């Protein structure tokens, strides 16, 4: 498989690839490279923290003792921060690469958040478990998660007073998209999800007394439907498969839909709603590697940050700075802006975030200093500039970076060849002219230079 195509594949289903790994894979055929990725992602490794103390405070009844409420909330906030950091580390060092990237994708599809850490962790690992599985089973599992029944008010959905929030978002955001159902469909399907609830520990409970056992008419069919029946009827529509394929295409392929390619994907997905088969098809298709799809997508803040950490491992000594950095860039894991999630694409970039992104590599990797050594500058002058930057800006982010890791994996790569490994798109003439004007630039400094270009924002 061509190295250029392997790089593209790993940027889209992962966060980049190191030269040492690239050399090994370039000897294989595309089918073998793609297969190796999915075989490695067969296993499901949950991301779990110790929840014993929180669970003990929650108890087994349907109501928490008042003295424990604030304790649970405080511990949940602390644990959610830890999960945020652990998730970023998992993305940086994944064993199941495709599964982890798909978990990130689904987190912005089945959008949800909760202030109870036990429910948050369960929901997060449900995304991971079903990320490459059967979509029908995935939707059913999501509908019964404690975090989701709270977030979209399904636990308040009762026969006497139906709550339509989950039914509406199920169709609008999770399965069909706007305009593919009626308000009456929402009302009828809401009745089918009445009685959904959970125990204090987060296990699903179906309350028969709160369920509407009457007939419902949904998408032209009438029967005593429950929630799973509604999901089955939705999945019978080809539009459901098409809607998911559109979102997969926009996330993994291109911000502009190609109707022909989406139709091909839909043909595959509609047969059995197998997510892994769909993703294998995408990664194996010739059009996935077309020039129009390479280096054309703007990295999300998490993709940008994890991409840097993939090349040069970074450890934040002050973990609050990692959270602060996510907020500055506009994407905090486990804290979506609303039920529709992050819009992505060009919405990731504005005048503030682009300024930060261009400066961030030097902030994290070189004490805020970007080497600008040009012809005629003396070593003393350069040393003086570097000391100035370290003194005045180095305190912004207290990090440890592992350049020896970078040097090990890029040992055989010439400094002027780094751009083909670090950048996904071609360098503009102005940027190239600037890079050519530099001299006495080490491999590390040149890496930072490349990461500080607008081109590095693309994948």
* Main sheet overview: 2 strands, antiparallel
Instruction: Please tally the β strands and state the result.
Output: 6
> Numbering strands along the chain, what is their spatial order in the largest sheet?
1-2
Task: Tell me, rounded to a whole number, the average pLDDT.
Answer: 94
Silhouette? globular
Q: What is the ordering of alpha helices and beta strands?
A: HHHHHHHHHHHEEEEHHHHHEHHHEHHHH
State the end-to-end distance: 19 Å
Q: Which class best fits the helix and strand makeup? A: mainly alpha
Proportion of residues in β-strands: under 5%
What percent of residues adopt helix (DSSP H or I)?
A: 40-55%
Q: Give unreliable regions as ranges.
A: none
User: Count of helices?
Assistant: 23
* Rg, Å, rounded: 24 Å
Could you walk me through the main structural features you see in this protein, from its secondary elements to its overall organization?
It is a single chain. The chain is mainly alpha-helical. It contains 23 helices and six strands. It has helices spanning 3-12, 19-25, 30-40, 52-58, 66-92, 97-107, 117-130, 135-143, 146-151, 165-175, 183-192, 227-235, 238-252, 259-272, 275-284, 301-311, 319-329, 351-365, 379-393, 403-409, 418-422, 429-436, 443-451, and strands spanning 196-198, 204-206, 216-218, 221-223, 314-316, 399-401. It has a two-stranded antiparallel ribbon with strand order 1-2. The protein has a two-stranded antiparallel ribbon with strand order 3-4. The chain has a two-stranded antiparallel ribbon with strand order 5-6. A hairpin with a 5-residue loop joins strand 1 and strand 2. Helix 3 (30-40) packs antiparallel against helix 15 (275-284) and helix 14 (259-272) runs antiparallel to helix 15. The chain is globular. The protein starts with a helix and ends in an 8-residue tail after the last helix.
């Amino acid at each position: 498989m061509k190295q250029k195509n392997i790089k593209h594949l790993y940027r889209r289903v992962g966060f980049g690839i190191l030269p040492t790994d690239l050399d090994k894979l370039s000897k294989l055929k595309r089918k073998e490279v793609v297969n190796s990725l999915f075989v490695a992602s067969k296993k499901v490794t949950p991301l779990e923290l110790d929840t014993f103390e929180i669970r003990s405070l929650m108890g087994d009844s349907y109501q928490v003792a008042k003295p424990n409420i604030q304790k649970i909330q405080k511990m949940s906030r602390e644990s959610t921060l830890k999960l945020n950091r652990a998730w970023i580390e998992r993305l940086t060092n994944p064993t199941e690469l495709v599964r982890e990237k798909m978990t990130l994708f689904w987190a912005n599809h089945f959008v949800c958040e909760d202030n109870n850490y036990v429910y948050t962790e369960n929901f997060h690992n449900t995304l991971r478990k079903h990320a490459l599985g059967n979509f029908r089973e995935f939707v059913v599992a999501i509908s019964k998660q404690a975090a989701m029944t709270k977030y979209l008010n399904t636990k308040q959905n009762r026969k006497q007073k139906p709550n339509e929030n989950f039914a509406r978002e199920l169709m609008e955001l999770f399965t069909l998209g706007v305009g593919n159902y009626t308000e009456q469909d929402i009302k009828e399907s809401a009745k089918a999800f009445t009685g959904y609830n959970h125990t204090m520990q987060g296990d699903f409970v179906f309350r028969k007394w709160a369920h509407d056992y009457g007939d419902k008419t949904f998408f032209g069919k009438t029967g005593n439907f429950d929630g799973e029946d509604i999901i089955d009827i939705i999945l019978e529509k080809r539009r459901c498969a098409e809607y998911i394929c559109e979102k997969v295409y926009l996330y993994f392929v291109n911000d502009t839909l190609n109707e022909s390619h989406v139709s091909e994907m839909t043909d595959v997905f509609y047969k059995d709603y197998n997510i892994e088969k769909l993703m294998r098809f995408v990664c194996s298709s010739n059009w996935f590697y077309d020039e129009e799809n390479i280096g054309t997508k703007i990295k999300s803040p998490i993709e940008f940050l994890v991409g840097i950490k993939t090349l040069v491992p970074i450890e934040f000594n002050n973990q609050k700075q990692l959270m602060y950095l996510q907020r500055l860039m506009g994407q905090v894991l486990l804290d979506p802006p609303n039920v529709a999630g992050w819009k992505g694409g060009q919405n990731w970039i504005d005048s503030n975030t682009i300024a930060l992104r261009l400066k961030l590599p030097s902030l994290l990797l070189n004490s805020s200093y970007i080497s600008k050594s040009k012809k005629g500058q003396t070593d003393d002058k350069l040393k003086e500039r570097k000391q100035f930057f370290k003194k005045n800006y180095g305190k912004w982010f207290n990090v440890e970076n592992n350049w020896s890791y970078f040097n090990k994996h890029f040992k055989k790569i010439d400094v002027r060849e780094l751009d083909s490994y670090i950048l996904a798109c071609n360098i503009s003439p102005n940027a190239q002219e600037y890079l050519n004007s530099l001299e006495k630039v080490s491999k590390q400094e040149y890496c930072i230079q490349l990461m500080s270009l607008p081109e590095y924002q693309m994948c």
